[in-house]
Records
---
Amino acid sequence: MKIGNLDIAKKVILAPMADITDTPFRTIAKKYGAGLTFTQMVSAKGVIENNFDTLKLLAFSRNEKPIGAQILGNDPDIVGRAVVDISKYSPDVIDLNAGCPVAKVTSNNFGASIMEDTKLLGRLVASMSRQFKDQPVSIKIRLGWNKNKISVLENAKAAEDNGASMIIVHTRTRDCRYNENPDWEWLVKIKETVKIPVVGNGSLFQPQDIRSMIEQTGCDSVMIARGALGNPFLFKRYNELVETGKDPGEPDIEELKNTVIEHIKLAVRDAGENIGIKRIKKHIIWYFRNLSGTDDIIKNIFAINSASEMIDFIELHCEKIRNGVYENYKNEYTNENFLRKVQYWLEDQEIN
């Protein structure tokens, strides 16, 4: 698939995810074959005000390219000025978030609320396109606010008419969140409406899911969000499925262990031991969530504060899996819980 002058071939895209798609996560995803990754979403206002924490999220290394940046904003002037500043980092794509359903975002007229105003959406894309010159800009949207207010076709056309090079569509409405199955049929209609690449998104957890979405809808590529949590192997599996017609399947316990340890070391190198170990804990739970003994990880992992202790814990846990220690161990936390709420071990986490 070509996005402007950027060609990612048949590879798929890692979605921008708050507090998740940092440099270590992107590095692992790229190693396993993601065609394009994104930094975490940043506030357009925070960018132009030189907010340190905002600008820190935009940092990436050359070996991460191609890479995109995603911004959150609802004022064409502020968004345009932010694009000028972000362009200094030389991302390959800049995306506008017009699909985030979280209440604290939409209540301030950001994210999915922009879908309600097609003219504003067009002005925002036009401002981005003017400032990013010949580089591609994109927009991420949902089908609409709810099933009675589907706006995706007019919004997709407005984005194209105002200079977007790609449209990313989460195939749910804002209201349904993850409570209902995604509606892929709208991707077919969007493809009939616009000429620029259309990327599908929504509940893609297996390489066969990705292939089915592309074959059934004609979309140009897909974007992976929850499907990549603890599962960078999905990119490799899909790429091999495309190249050879065969899915190599889930990684064995040795590959899983080595990847987790590599992720731990990258997290510590990126943020220091104290912060890095705090950040990596949720990823470790995701890596092991489909294996017996996950609740044993949840019970013990939050007391670990050093990299060496964490690596020792992972090696011992994998050895227990090999030796069948958890064979009759009731796994309290299932994939169903993950689908409902990704940080399913936290009672007060908002679903987004």
---
Amino acid sequence: MGSVAGEPGRAKRPVPPAAARRSRAEEPEAPMPTEAKQATVAELREELANARTMIVSEYRGLTVKEIAEIRRALRKQDVTYRVVKNRLMRIAADDSVGEALGPLLIGPTAIAFGTDEAGTAKAVLDATRPYNKIVRITGAVLGDRAIDADAVTRLAALPSREVLLAKLAGGMQAPIGNLAGLFAAPLRNLGFALAQVAEQKRAQSPDA
């Protein structure tokens, strides 16, 4: 029989380095980030469901304080501004606006969520103007359609949804139900509605 103290016939088990021991000690905590990511995806899906407009920007170079200032300014305009992880945002948008939103998710991304298309675009441009050498608007999603950064600037120059619809209602003979539907419609549909108004005017006054 071999010596019990030395156990010459048995290979010694290597001792793992300190870094490996620390890594193994942290393994039980691995599920926590997964749960946190699932919660974040759920929050983003709720934001997507409640928003009609999403203005997407790259915020690289902003400090935490500056992001907080932009967020505070937009909150006064009923616009939510949040920094997002692109991968989680793609997961959240996969079953809704993923096709339109995905190409805009480049670099460190912040998204402004709002309900008034022109109003949200104007609020974002105003709130980020002090940082326009840092913040880069990459585009927006209106309903399920993507627009580029230049179109966001043009959108911000338009009157608000309420003003446009008030002008539309003033020149259109339509049942109240139809007007209510227009209030819920994406801004891009207003062009069609305005064309209908022009057609009605021509029908009433052929010489107009």
---
Amino acid sequence: MFDMQRTPMKTLPAATSTTPERPVALDRTRAKLLEAAGEVFAEAGYYAATIREIAHRAGANVAAVNYHFGDKLGLYTEVLRQSVQSAARNEVIRATFESDSPPEEVLRKVIRAMLHTVCAAEHRDRRLGLMMHELAQPTPAMSRVIDETMAPIYQRLRRLVGAMIGLPEDHEKTRLCTHSIVGQIVHYVHARPILARLWPEFTMAPQQLDRIAQHIADFSLAYFSEMRARREEVAPAHVRTRK
């Protein structure tokens, strides 16, 4: 049988950008393909998903995938990029790159923005499904999405944490502290089904998320303060020994 999924059509040019001359119908088809692909990839994962199923749900021809995205990987990359970008919305970027406030206040804003974003109801289950499949069976798309979307925020967050604990942003301890903060945040998404059983009052209401964000910030900053205190105690003795 002729396999449209493995044999990309070359008779149509790739077209991924929106221009004034671009027909509205093409943009509508592209949006439907992305919506359907998000559902299928979240349910089945990249490797088990088929272009035929995605095209069927979108009410489009299989050739439309090749036209708009080049191939299955191109479509998946765009779905993954949009999913991650929606989880790093403008408020997270603004909070992460804020420079006028003290570091502790910036960190609180970042934690709150990230928690509200990853716990947002819109496509929450789809984002979780995509990431679970990606973690179980990584694809080439993830490295590109990480470089484009996650790396700038991760670097800025490390720099912020490093400044508060007095260590370089590339120091292992700085990375561990950064990962601890992120881990506390994503826990409330990944463990949501379990938390719903263990903690019936956990509803992800905005006010509750604010309290959780405040706790994560207090918890993390308390450790940072202890780290600084220990470093200040050790430093004088170290200097005296050297003398």
